[in-house]
Design goal:
Oligomer: single chain
Helix content: 40-55%
Order of helices and strands: HHEHEEH
Structural class: alpha+beta
Radius of gyration: 29 Å
Shape: rod-shaped
Strand content: 15-25%
Number of helices: 4
């Protein structure tokens, strides 16, 4: 069947394919999207400093004491010769009591 010079029949197939791909892309974005536009929370905003020590080794020792008590903690080193031990807010009171009894500086 001859195609007229002004006919757009040749564009119908690729046009349908592009529309189908757009529909699939929108469905995939909807189905696999997080659904949340909230700003992610940084770990520093969740954790509270319980002690600041001058040596990393002392901070690691305090972390071991906290871990033995069942308290999750981490270390942040914001500057040279400074190590902060951070815990979750619900463990803060117990962690402070253990940090006060901790003798390593």
């Amino acid at each position: 069947m001859p195609i007229e010079a002004g006919s757009l029949h040749f564009a119908v197939g690729p046009g349908i394919a592009l529309v189908a791909l757009a529909v699939i892309a929108l469905f995939a974005r909807w189905a696999f999207g997080s659904g949340s536009t909230a700003k992610p929370v940084k770990a520093e905003e969740l954790l509270t400093p319980v002690a600041t020590l001058t040596r990393r080794e002392s901070a690691l020792a305090l972390r071991a004491v906290l871990s033995d008590a069942g308290i999750r903690s981490t270390i942040r080193e914001p500057a040279a010769h400074r190590a902060d031990v951070l815990v979750f807010p619900e463990d803060l009171a117990r962690a402070r009591a253990l940090a006060l009894s901790f003798g390593g500086k």
